[in-house]
Amino acid sequence: MTANEIPDYDSAAVEARWQARWQESQAWRVGLLPQRPKYYVLEMFPYPSGAIHMGHVRNYTIGDVLARYKRMQGFDVLHPMGWDAFGLPAENAAIKRGIHPAAWTFDNIAAMKKQLQRMGLSYDWDRELATCAPEYYRWEQRFFIEMLRRGLVYQRLTTVNWCEGCHTVLANEQVEGGACWRCHTEVEPREMACWFFRITAYVEELLAGLDQLTGWPERVISQQRQWIGKSTGALVRFPVEGSDQPLAIFTTRPDTIFGVTFMSLAVDHPMVAEVVASEGADSALARFVAETRIARQRQEHEQELDKAGVFTGRYCRNPFTGERVPIWAANFVLMEYGTGAVMAVPAHDQRDFEFATRYGLPVRQVIVPPGQEVAASRPALTAAYEEPGVLVASGPFTGLPSQEAKGAITAQAEKEGFGQAHVTYKLRDWGLSRQRYWGAPIPIIHCQACGPQPVPEADLPVVLPTDFVWPADGRSPLPAMAEFVHVPCPACGGPGRRDTDTMDTFVESSWYFARFTSAREDTRPFDPQAVAAWLPVDQYIGGIEHAVLHLLYARFFTKVLRDMGYLSVDEPAARLLTQGMVLKDGAKMSKSKGNVVDPDALIERYGADTVRLFSLFAAPPDKDLEWSTQGVEGASRFLSRVWRLVHEQLPVLAAAGSAPADLDAASRDLHRKTHQTMRKVTEDIETRLHFNTAIAAIMELTNAISAATAAEAATTVAPAVLREAIEAVVTLLSPMVPHLAEELWQTLGHDQPLAFAAWPAFDPAVAQEDLVTVVVQVNGKLRSRLTVPPGTASGELQAMALADDKVLRFLAGKPVRKAIVVPDKLVNLVVAG
Predict the structure, then answer these.
(1) Is 745 within 8 Å of 730 (Cβ atoms)?
(2) pLDDT band for position 159 (50/70/90)?
(3) N or C: which end of the chain has fewer CB within 10 A?
(4) How far is CA 811 from CA 768, 814, 820, 829, in A?
């Protein structure tokens, strides 16, 4: 076919045609055929903000490549999509626009769904779900009630971050510089009754389970381990002067207890509140408590406050020595860790050392490096000594190694009745109450006589009322809706008050992956056969920013639903990929930075396949991707080149029969390159998810085809070999650029859709090189190279290396002490220096 006869590559027409065919044929519907293995690939579902961004494009393209690849490998693939549709952003947007959040949310869903469909993503839209739909959150309310009965849900008073601008509680992660992350109102501490999930009941299983998640990134495992924060040590009770209540402390360093010179309390510790109550709100301690709370709200994530404190006027006594110990309130002690009270040993803890230095408190060294325990005198410490060593000035424990002393001192405390071995965790129970409208209602009715009562299951779901007028100040309308609030108590029939808090939106995303297995089930949360067949998710894909909260909560919910009999798996996902961000000019794309690239405009200009190819080729999926207009244009040129190559060779391919038994050199080289590319692409997708190197290999094969078919080529490649190579390019590209691949597959004369064709299988014997290059080193330095047939025996490689003239010059008659041989790659001869 001449250049004038080649049709133009019209990406818009090609993509519209194939998207329509896929929709008409319901190509991506799932039926879990018994004769086919299952594969469940899931990308973290989006919040329906109204428009997808390049981060979405990258995330969903990665998932789609895997889904399409696995279908072609013969798997029955579940690849669903839904919407994380509740939350404060929708409510704020609705208030601003004077509309109902449901209308705003579902309009956004429709717009984003259309965008995702334009990308050619192979979703089973029959399983689409929106978490704001009553048919979804009714089951969440049922789980809440069942968890309440199991003791996994409770309500208590707690101090929360309160945003007056949004009229709601904020998580610590939603407070930025002391202000609300969304409306920027200064956050204030407030005490209120909130509902909690008792996630700490599963703390040991959540921790132990991390060892089984071999398909998860180590970075995520490490972050979860740190968040759980298991510490093993001792709980010791220090008697308090003038009180019959001792001061309990937790320490991981009981070996330093003879070096205690003061106590540090969190500002939220009950003893601090007791002192403030007795001294009054104008006392120095009361002012310090208020200042510390405000400073904590304003501090950035992982930022440390300048260490400060106030003496409470109270004393306790060291139970080992009887020594009187002053009790201070300190801003670096957290109530959330241990008991909120810390025995301060400034000689062996740097924070305590800095605090003691500031306030002139004693520093007493009780551990020294091994070998220094008998020194007559020691220089004053300029920093805390935090390493293991030997105990000094520690009563009967003097002379013990510090590691041994930990157990001995703990055992003595237990024997004397003022302490014992103890384990503590940083993890705290999950506060789920939100004082907003747009969320799943908490299914509780409060009764003055009976207390909190769960809504009867027959009355579920508790549906959000829709007929209301937003209060002028933007507060949740629920507390003012008498018909919603005032209901009979389910237990006694007396007057009751419906709970007007709604659930944290992390609840919805903690079990959606299971609901996708039977999204249309209307008599129970899940079809038992479906969840047993599909779970766990085989490959989960999402951002590293969800490494802790979402993924930890999803793991917790999976274990709870298992114990309630709904699921049979321990973890939600076998493999996890945390994809990198999309950057422009070195910064994350965001509207505030003005560096956003609109995917719709890109698709309009270049086509979805080009955008998909660029997002896969520009960087490995777990690394950040730097936006490049030149990269997009390069992807577009490559696809046009493939289009032309196929059409140019159609006359030759039409005449292709079987490959001759004996291939000439050019045909043999292209045949080998084809099978090597099949092997490379398969391995890159299957084992490493490195689509960029897979695409690079396909580009190399395309170059080889072009070179073999160029007008100036010395020989003519066998038509059957050429067809195999061209069809390999089209087939291997199909998960990445499905529209172009389908069009070219049809052009090549195939009737069945490529999406359901078999993935090309390479022949290892064909893919093997005729000759390989083996590097020869002497003492680790390159000295020569050997060209040998693949599979040459190690002994033969060593003999050839020892006979090589270049190598002999560096051996200089010295005996070879050791020979390290890696077949097909390396010979390293180790000789005396």
Answers:
(1) yes
(2) confident
(3) C
(4) 33, 5, 15, 9
Helices (H), 710-793: 719-733, 738-747, 764-767
Please report, for residues 200, 448, 539, 540, the alpha-carbon distance to residue 512 in angstroms, rounded to integers and kept in the order given.
22, 35, 15, 13
142: left (phi over 0), alpha (psi -120 to 50) or beta: alpha
pLDDT of residue 591: 67
The pLDDT mean for the chain works out to 93
Give the distance, in angstroms, between the CA of residue 710 and the centroid of all CA atoms in the same chain.
Answer: 48
Please report the pLDDT score of residue 590 as a whole number.
73
Of the candidates 28, 34, 32, 39, the residue with the CA atom closest to the CA atom of residue 686: 39
User: Strand 539-543 and strand 38-43: pairing?
Assistant: parallel
In this prediction the pTM is 0.88
CB atoms within 10 A of CB 588: 12
Helix (H) or strand (E) holding 681: helix 665-683
Task: Give the chain's radius of gyration (CA, Å).
Answer: 34
Query: Residue 676 above 90 pLDDT?
Result: yes
Q: Give residue 360's pLDDT.
A: 97
Helix/strand/coil for 596: coil
Decide: 61 and 68 in contact? Cβ < 8 Å.
no
Determine which helix (DSSP H) or strand (DSSP E) holds 673, and give its type and residue range: helix 665-683
pLDDT tens track for 76-123: 999 999 999 999 888 888 888 888 999 999 999 999 999 999 999 999
Hey, how many other C-beta atoms are within 10 angstroms of the C-beta on 27? 15
Instruction: Specify the residue for token string 């097909």.
Output: 824
- Could you give the CA distance from residue 250 to residue 648 in angstroms, rounded to a whole number? 77
Give the SS3 label for residue 115. helix
CA-CA-CA-CA torsion for 538, 541, 545, 546, nearest 10 degrees? Answer: -40
Q: How many residues does the chain have?
A: 833
Kindly state the average pLDDT of the residues 316-335: 96
Helix (H, G, I), strand (E, B) or coil at 662: coil
pLDDT at res. 654:
80
Mean local confidence (pLDDT), 755-779: 91
Structure tokens at 786: 């050997």
CA 506 – CA 510 distance, rounded (Å): 6
User: How confident is the model at residue 375, as a pLDDT?
Assistant: 74
Helix or strand run (H / E) with residue 150: none
Which of the two residues, 742 and 596, has the higher pLDDT score? 742
User: Which of 198, 200, 196, 201 lies closest to 444, judged by CA?
Assistant: 196
Structure tokens at 546: 């969800």
Say if residue 302's pLDDT is above 70: no
Q: What's the whole-number mean pLDDT along residues 687-696?
A: 94
CA distances from 832 to 358, 529, 815, 826 (A): 59, 67, 7, 20
Which residue reads 């070096």 in tokens? 259
How far, in Å, are 52, 436, 438, 460, 509 from residue 85 at the CA level? 14, 14, 9, 20, 10
Question: Tokens 């329906």, residue?
Answer: 48
Which contacts of 507-510 are long-range, i.e. CB under 8 A and separated by 24 or more positions? 507/140, 507/432, 507/440, 507/553, 508/84, 508/85, 508/86, 508/131, 508/136, 508/137, 508/140, 508/440, 509/44, 509/45, 509/84, 509/131, 509/550, 509/553, 509/554, 510/550, 510/553, 510/554, 510/556, 510/557
Establish whether the linkage from the previous residue to 461 is cis, with ω within 30° of 0. Answer: yes
d(CA 811, CA 820): 15
* pLDDT for position 191: 85
DSSP string, 234-300: EEEEEPBTT-SS-EEEEES-GGGGGG--EEEE-TTSHHHHHHHHHH-TTSHHHHHHHHHHHHHHHSP
pLDDT at residue 773 is higher than 60: yes
